[in-house]
Each structure stands twice: as structure tokens, then as C-alpha cells.
């Protein structure tokens, strides 16, 4: 990673094929996009970002393209106010303000997810709180508040720096919050933890909804159980590396252009 | 696109492989068929159409073949009364009258969908109204009425010009209506908006049904929210192009004969 | 098809690859197996059969192998009492008696399905009757009785000629019945109608169960609607050919050894 | 299989490609991993083991890698206390103590499964007992108790020899038990029966949950029915071989590196 990240972004070897040489942060955000697409977490409309390791005041994110298609050629550098730093005509995501505002408010965190997978939406519209019900959902122990303070006229999208800041304030010190009738935002230390959080949020929500539909009382994780489970699932070296390796191996099998990705 | 669309249809380069040269409207209706098949929205029995850009009195639609298999070789030109204009022995869909009648009644619209994906049928048989519950469902803000005025003896299919007209009257100024125990019709400005509407109808219905099963009160989009969300999802250039690009990229990966489609 | 079907079965060109030359009935039962596997209707344990067109007293069925793997090399001729006619060491399915007994009791029918897809089991264990709720389920208008008269000690399987006959009596003049906690049997005029019946039974059951979970009253097809819908879906040339073509095209895409199947 | 299993493990032909020469037990545990991954039963975090046929005091299991990726290169020999016997720097699974303790407590059994597929978790958190509701679930006739006696601070994982022994005591003479908010353990005579048990547990749980959501009374298998069904499904030669052949054929189709596996 060079000091001047924009130069690094521009250094990406531009070919018709997927470039194999690119700074590590760019390569990792490409893989995160592909994994989240391949696992059915992101479709055309969600996005992920990671803080520029060479400059905490900017982050890296794909241009306005589906995660399924992202290559190193498609990565932009953007500052925390949402202004594109990379000299390019490529168009950024309209909701990039979510990423900038959260990264500004959470200096200890480095990766942000915004998406709309269907398992979480019923919670958001019925005012039902997601809680840890399975050990991989332990990281949700602080609770998952539901945002419902949209800018009128913006179609429930977060399209301004101002609303991005409101979003960041609502997220507060949580790892996840839902947006009513829309989706969720997740923040994590890095892209590995971010991807694992998104997938485990989906799985925990799916199971919790099934339990809820039965009308039977469910036993959730205690705060101690949840904290310890989070510690192991996200911060022990072994499980997180095993998951990342697994999701990546599936990408390499399913996506022909990623077959030889190292 | 030539003035004489039937000539253009006949101009399609007929080979054993998927022809690459064809008028743009034909190419787009082929891709719409493939996307709707690949996304699990259409199986063997549904169909889409688009108005002939050179003659508002006819439309373009595949012959009686599954959307999964459609190529430019399979496209017919049909007039709004349901008569096949293309000189061919190829057989049209029995329910083509739906398309002609809706295109006649809605001159501001240019594309029609008829399909039976399972997420919508429970609504149609329990007289439950689909409403916007997620931002991509905003385009449903006018409501989704349920048709139940079938011609006796036609097995709940729409097989005559006369019933096609009744269908068009029931649809009225809505974008979507359901057919009880059968499926739905959707109308849109063009094939991009049509495909997006079909996929988002499925997603909205799936989520709404889950919320309903819980017995909990759900907060739907307000009319203002829904209108603004529709405006952005369907009429801003960026999201609709990103979605179309995504669905097309998946088709090119999954369907070997579409691999090199430009 | 020769007069001596066993000779025809033996005529199958036996190679390491999937043989391309085989009597039409054998080719069609191979494709039916592959379609039902590919559509998720059969896993390792179900089976289909078709009456020998040259001898109504025998039928054609795969040896004890999963439908996913069946080739013309694997087809046996079996008489209606369940005795294998083909001179071979290959092992038949233990439940072949279902097929023989139903074909004996229903001389106007020629194809039998036995399978266990999960959409139907909840009906069978809660004594809930499947009824036509969508137009493709019209063929169920005579009702779907539930068999619960198992031979003690046979693990709810149908492993004797005697119980096969009891099964056939319970099916009576219906097209479909369920076996409690086990699966279903379907009978049809030929393999095209049989495959369509199995897939549409799954779809109708899935939708009916969703409607039932909501606790809302559902409007089913009237007997007239259902009969007319069945007439069109199963006996008009166009839809059944379109469906068979579609399912077959998917098999050719998904199963490499079937890629060049004509 | 040599007397010295560690030597046999080390004999695996180590190449960049998947080795084709390896002792049978190693080959079978590789295939079991791949099948369970391919059938959606295991993701990154579960694992299977089989007792060393040459030494009942050790078992064979993959190193800390996802079942999707396991090759003969990745297999370790481990003793029943959880100590790795193979001379290697490769890291074992943290929860290997489950396997050792169960194999020690159940000398008549030889294969152990630990996984987290979502169909079972709602039962485990609502204190709902899984019972045989379909003939392939007959092997559950002894009941499926729910473990909830976790070591504080271990995040609901089983990471010590001591808790492994508690797990084995809780399992007792059952074939399956659930771990509250976590997953399940299964024990069987060999890997074929183990894989079949895991898949059928998933199917039985899915169907039972659907029946339960309807609020209707369900008829379960009687103990006699269940025992007889288990006897046939797991111990007759034909069904178990057909299932194993089927699951393996699907692995060979879906996983390019397994294509030529004999």
C-alpha cells in the first residue's frame, strides 16, 4: 500500500480480465463483494467498504456496479464526507454517505456493510428486536435498534451527508442496526469480521423468525454466553480464517473469472 | 429498427447458435426472458412482451416456448388484437391476448409481464392485498387488486380477446394486479422497469407474507415514501441500470449459450 | 419398439458414456428420471415407471439406482406382479410392487410415480386434504386421499405384491394419494403428464400450506374450474410440450452427461 | 490400511491436485465431508470423524478447514483424548473433544458428526422434542434430548476434554442430541449411516416444524414403525448404497476437483 492510496488505486493493472495485481485492501474488498454476492447476502443494490489503511480519512468502495461484478478496476477512493478522491468519471453509489459517516463516528472500526437481505426486513417492519438465539449470533448482544427517521422525499434511501450523520448517531456503539422497510448497516474491525457478521446476522434472523412463528417461548443467549461466543467467532484466529477460506473457495468455484484468484 | 418490424424480425440471422445480430427490441426481450427465468420468476408457462418501437399497434413476444430457451429466432410480431403478423408457422402463446389488450388500454406503457411465481398466489386466494412493505416495493403504492371474473370453461386462463379486454379494464391505471389462483399481470414503461417490477413484487410479497404469518402489526410505506421510493428505484438512471447489468451478468454466467452475448 | 421388449432393453448400446440409441420408451423414462431429479422432486429414493408399449403386462423402470444417475443401461422390464423379466443380475427397487399393482388396476393409465418430496408430508401427517388452489393443481379435483394401512414391520414401505394391491385399491380412480408419513403415488396417461403432475402437486401443496398457515380462509378452485384447468394443462398439446421441453432443456444444461441428448 | 495408521496418513500421495491414492477410511471421510457440504448440511464450521479401523483408540478427521475443501492431504489422526497423533504442524478443530469422548463412550459406534444446520436450532431453543414424523426419520425413535449444560465462558462451544465427556454422558445411548442454540451431535456405525442420519435429521426436522406451525395435531411414527423404518433405511444394503451413490454422484458433478474421484 503506497502512501498515496489514489495512486495505488490507479496502479491497478487494467486489462480485460480480472487484474491479479492490486493493493491488498483493494483485493480484499473485491473478494468481500464476491463472497456477499455468492452467499446471497447482496444482490444488485447493497455495498461494502473498507477504510484506506494508508489514510484513515478515506475509504475504498466499488463504483455503482453490482457486488457480483466488482473487480479491482471498479474500486474508488472516497473521503468521509462522501466526495470521490479518485480522479475518474466512474460513478459512486448514491448511499456512500452511510459508509463515510459511520467510519467517521467509529474510529476503532474499519469496514461497513449496507444491504437488504430479506431475512431481516420482517423484524424492521414489525418492530421486533433481533437478539442472539444461536452462538454465531453472539455479536448481536448489544441489541439491534431500528432506524425510522428518514429524510422525507428521499424514498427511504440515505442520500445526503446530513442523513448519513443521523444514521451514524442512531447506530451509536452498536455493531448492527436495521432501517425500517429497507435493510441494515453493519460495522466491524475489518472485512473478514464484517462479512462474517452479515452472514451470521442473516442466519440468526432466519432462526429467530422461525422460533417466533411457532409462538413458543425461546431461550436466547445470556449476555455472558453471547459475549464469549462473539469473542471466539470473530476474534479467535481459527474460525474466522476457516470461514473466509470457505467462502472464498466457493467464490472461486462458482465465479469463472475468479477461478485463479490467489 | 426498420420501419417494417416484421422484416426486422425476419432479418434475424438464423443459425444453430444464438444469433448475435438482431434489432435492439428483440435483443432486449430475449434478455428479459432469460433474466426472468434465471431469477426464478418465470418457469415454462409465463411470458413477457414489448411494444414494437416502430409501430405502436404491434408487440414483440416469443413463440410458445419457455423463457429459459428463448432466442432471437423465436420472436414473433403480434398485433394488439392477438393476431400474429410475422409470416411463420411458429405457434404463439395462448394467453397473448393479455398483452395486446393491456398495451391497447395503456398507450403510455410499453411492456407487459404475465407469470405465476408462488409468492403471490397465497395473497390472491385469501383476498389479501399486497402493499409496499419494503422500499423496492414502492411502485405498488396504487394497490394490487385481485381479478376473479374468469370466463367459465377456460380453466382460469385468458384465452380470448374479449377476456383480455376485461383483464385490461380490471387492471385500470394500476401497475400490477393478481389473478385469483393463477398469477399476476404487470405493466411498465419498458422492459427494464418491467423486469425490476416483477422481481421486486416477488420480494415484497415474500416479506409481507412473513410479517403477516407472525400476527404482528406491520408498518407499511406511506404513500409519500412509496412514491419517492418508486421514483428512485425505477426512474433514476443508476439503480435500474445497475440491476439490469447484474441480472444480465448472472444470465451470462449461468446460461452457456448466452456467455458471449453483448 | 420391437415386439419383444426384453430384447429391446438388451439392445441398448452399452458403453461407458450414456447410450444415445435406445427404444423411445426407454429414452423417455430416462429423461423423466433426470427431470424429476433436476427439479428437486426425487432424491435417491423415489422412482417412476412406464408401461411397456409393446406389452401392457409389463413396465419399464430403472434398477435400484438414484434417478439422478439413470441411463438407458439401467432400465429393467418388470411384470405387473413385480417379477423382473429382463435377464440380468441388476437389482430392482424394493417398492416396484406399487407400480405393478397400480398399472394392473388402471388399464387406461401408463405411468406411475412414487416419491417423498417434503411439501406433501405435512398434509399426510395432519390429515389435511390437498385441494386445487392454483390452476396447475386442477388435476387434483377428485381429491387426494391419505393411505394409512401399512403392513406391520415393513417400516411404512410397500414391499409386497399384497400391499401393492391394497395401495392400488386405496388409490381407486384418483390420480394421486398420499402415504402417511412417507410420500405419494401418482398415476397418469404417460410420462409427460406424470412429470407435470408431480411438479404441480408440489407447487399446489406448497401454496396451499402457506395459505393454511395464515389462518385465513382460502378460495379453492371450483370443480368446473379445476376440470377445465386440468384439461388445458395436461391435454392441450401446447402447454405440456412447452413444459417438457423446458424441463428437458434444464437437464441438458445442468447434467453434463445429458448435454448432447437428442 | 497398515497397522500404523499415522504412517498410512503420511503415505497420502501429496500433490497439488487431490490425491487419488489413500487408505479407504481416509477416502471415505473425505467423501463424507464433501457430501455434507454439497447437501447444505455443513458450512465452514461443522466436522465429521471416523474411528481408525486399525486402532480403535484413535480417529480420523480433517484439520481446521471447511468440509467443502477437505482432501486426503488434510486428514489428521487424533486419539480419544483429543491429542493429535499425526506428526504435523496442521491445526485440528477446536471441538475435536466431542468426537473423542463420544467414540470412547460408544465402542459399538465408529463415526461422529457435529454441525449447526438451521432446521434443528428452533427445536433446541424452544425446548421442542424432535420425533420421527417421516419414515426416513425412524432412526430418531429413542428421542433427541437437548443439551444445555455449557461450560461458562466457552461461548457455547465444546473445547475441553472435560466438557466432551459431559456431552458424551448426555448423549448416552441416543443416536442424536441437540445443543441448545448451537447445533447437534450424531453418532453412527459408520460414515454411510452417519451421513444418512444427518440428512434425514434435517428433513424430519423441517417437516416436523411445518406441521407444528400449522397448530394441527400430527401423527408421529409409532415406536414399531420407527424401528422397522430405521432397520430398512440404515441397515438394508440397497437403500444406503443407493443414497451414498447418489450423494457422491452429485459431489462429482458439482465439485470440479472431485470429478474423477473413484
Give descriptors for this structure:
homotetramer; 262 residues; alpha+beta; seven-stranded mixed beta sheet; 8 helices; 39% helix; globular
Description:
- Four copies of one chain form a homotetramer.
- Chain A is α+β, with helices and mostly antiparallel strands and 262 residues long.
- The first copy, chain A, has helices at 5-11, 24-38, 96-105, 121-125, 161-171, 191-213, 223-235, 237-254; strands at residues 47-51, 58-62, 75-79, 111-115, 146-147, 176-179, 183-188.
- In chain A, strands 3-2-1-4-7-6-5 form a seven-stranded mixed sheet, with helices on both faces.
- In chain A, helix 5 links the parallel strand 5 and strand 6 (176-179).
- In chain A, helix 2 (24-38) runs parallel beside helix 6, helix 3 (96-105) packs across helix 5 and helix 6 packs across helix 8 (237-254).
- In chain A, 58% of the residues are buried.
- The mean pLDDT of chain A is 93.
- Chain A binds chain B through residues 43-45, 64-66, 68-69, 91, 94, 116, 118, 121-122, 125-128, 148, 150, 152-157, 180-182, 209, 212-213, 255-256, and chain B through 132-136, 138, 203, 206-207, 210-211, 213-214, 216-221, 224-225, 228-233, 236, 238-239, 242-243, 245-247, 249-250, 253.
Amino acid at each position: 500500500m503506497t502512501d498515496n492510496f489514489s495512486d495505488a488505486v490507479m496502479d491497478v493493472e487494467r486489462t480485460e480480465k480480472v487484474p491479479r495485481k492490486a493493493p491488498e485492501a483493494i483485493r480484499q474488498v473485491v473478494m468481500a463483494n464476491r463472497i456477499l454476492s455468492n452467499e446471497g447476502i447482496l444482490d444488485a443494490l447493497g455495498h461494502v467498504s473498507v477504510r484506506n489503511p494508508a489514510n484513515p480519512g478515506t475509504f475504498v468502495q466499488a463504483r455503482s456496479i453490482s457486488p457480483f461484478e466488482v473487480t479491482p478496476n471498479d474500486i474508488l477512493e472516497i473521503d468521509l464526507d462522501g466526495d470521490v478522491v479518485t480522479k475518474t468519471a466512474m460513478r459512486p453509489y448514491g448511499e456512500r454517505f452511510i459508509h463515510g459517516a459511520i467510519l467517521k463516528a467509529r474510529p476503532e472500526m474499519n469496514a461497513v456493510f449496507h444491504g437488504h437481505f430479506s431475512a431481516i426486513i420482517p423484524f424492521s417492519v414489525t418492530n421486533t428486536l433481533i437478539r442472539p438465539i444461536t452462538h454465531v449470533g453472539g455479536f448481536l448482544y448489544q441489541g439491534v435498534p431500528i432506524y425510522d427517521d428518514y429524510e422525507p422525499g428521499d424514498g427511504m434511501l440515505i442520500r445526503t451527508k446530513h442523513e448519513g450523520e443521523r444514521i451514524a448517531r442512531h447506530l451509536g456503539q452498536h455493531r448492527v442496526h436495521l432501517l425500517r422497510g429497507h435493510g441494515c448497516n453493519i460495522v466491524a474491525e475489518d472485512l473478514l469480521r464484517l462479512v462474517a457478521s452479515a452472514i451470521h446476522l442473516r442466519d440468526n434472523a432466519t432462526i429467530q423468525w422461525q422460533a417466533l412463528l411457532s409462538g413458543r417461548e425461546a431461550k436466547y443467549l445470556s449476555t455472558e454466553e453471547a459475549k464469549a461466543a462473539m469473542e471466539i467467532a470473530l476474534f479467535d484466529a481459527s474460525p474466522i480464517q476457516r470461514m473466509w477460506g470457505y467462502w472464498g473457495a466457493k467464490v472461486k468455484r462458482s465465479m469463472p473469472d475468479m477461478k485463479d484468484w490467489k
